[in-house]
Amino acid sequence: FTFIKHFQEYSTYIFEDNIQNSMEITNHNEIIQEFICEYDGLNALQILFTTNERINNSTLFVELLQDDKCIQKYDVKESLIADNIYLILRLDHKIESKGQKYILRLTSDAISGNGVTPLKYKLQYSTLQHKDSYRPFILIQIFVILLCFISIIYCCKKTISIEKSFILLWCVFSLLYACSNTMYNVPDESHHFYRAYEISMGHMISEMNDEGTKGGRELPLVDTGFNSKYWQTFKDSLDSRLSKEVVFKNFSNTALYAPISYIPQATGILLARLITDRLAIITYAGRCANWMCITLILYFAIKLLPFGKEFLSLILLMPMNMHEAFSLSPDGMVVAVSVFMIAFVMYLRYVQKNYLSIFQIILLYLLAIVISLYKIVYLPFCLIYFLIPKERFSSIKQKIIHAVIVAVTTILIALIWLQICNKFLTHIGANSSLQIANIVHHPIIYVTTIFRTYAIYSIQLLHQMVGSTLGQLTVNVNSIIVMAYIFMLFYKLTLYGRISIDRGREYEKCIFGIVIFFIVLLISTSIYVQWTWVGENLILGLQGRYFISLLLPLYFMVTKATYIDNGENEQISFVALNLAFAFNACSGIAILFYCLE
Length: 597
Prior knowledge:
By secondary structure, the chain is α+β, with helices and mostly antiparallel strands. The protein has 20 helices and 13 strands. Helix 8 (279-304) runs parallel beside helix 11 (331-350), helix 15 (432-441) crosses helix 18 and helix 18 (506-531) runs antiparallel to helix 19. The relative contact order is 0.11.
């Protein structure tokens, strides 16, 4: 209701244009700017000035005239005008301005060399006239929120397995983001689209441009029409189609990803291309295919996990993870594959009593290869295979052989792909080779840099991880509910499941601790090498979503819970359900109104 009130009373539309005959305003020069308003509800003027990098001790006189009559006047001390920052001048009241012609007159008592120069102006309206067509979006979102609420009640009233409760909530919560977030409004999603589209055409490895400076490919996407974050632009460009011509699209940052990272997205794009050339349908087909694969994997992950199901459910229902999952980004699949790996290994450790089947052995190999190719920084997840008891193999020798083969295979495949994509790595950020040399020659300084970075940004990264900023990391969610969700996760992490204590789990906790340590180190180092300038004393470019996959290992590292026979009856608590619902509902609303502005 707060968002709707804001939308009705304070939503604005801003028209921007250059000041004609721009020059310094003095006691001998004045600026006259004519304009015609497109909408009713003109309530403010915004003017961009340059102060010529000096403090001007004069007075600026701004007049708004209609039919040679001054309807608003402002006297502004020029010493208060900031250089290249819009000066906002609010009207005493909104005026019926649609179709009306106005004159903006700027004068000053400044002498030459002591005045300001106007560059641009904006007209700010407070009106709903241009947003009548947005009402269906709001009604759909309200319907989806009610559907989520009904699902919460159903999960509380009915005794169903936790994986069924999760999958129901996952599906209805996903609708919040499907109905609120515009296309390409997830970090780097347009570049993920280019890479997935390239793979759907059968090109597994990207190319370099003619200058050899950028990675990408020529694609039939001369004008995608959907590069804006607003629904209005989406509606205006809804008829955009694949073009007959091709243009080189630069996506060096996603050309680094192995083809396997985009198999679901590319499959959806390919199937859509067979029946249509509309870009909107093609993009959403890729999104939906990625989401469906993630959903299937997460269902089996929770089903297999012997304990900690509630904590895993709450991790997966975080807004950051959900809005990444319903996109073309591979980040959602990274989380899905990593938690499935852990759930599968813990199932083999605590539940299964017989030898591994051929299918299970093949699955272990595939998971290790997939996680290493999705993002090589998550390769340490393969260390959890040491938690599989030797009793699951016919002999200790067989376990050692499989461990060696998995290690050699995954490392070799990851290094081969790293060698293939190395040419793109040198074009996406800082000087990688010099940065690596700097780390090698000054390791202590680098370790200090890591500690300094996390000391400064740890709280911000924690907030980002759960979903304090969504969309292109520009949509802010209410900080109170963000803190409430973090507190709940901390409570579940430290207190939930203290049913019994297993004194022999030190080895298990140690393995998970090593996994977390090496993944954090690899994430930090990769960002430092790829995106941070050489010798910088902070790691620039870290984002909270990179660490979502580490929350489940953290749970097993610190929890005192152990597997019990009735672990299958584990449920999500009533408070946790409602907090997850509230967090996602507020996130969906925040994204929607951001995209409607």
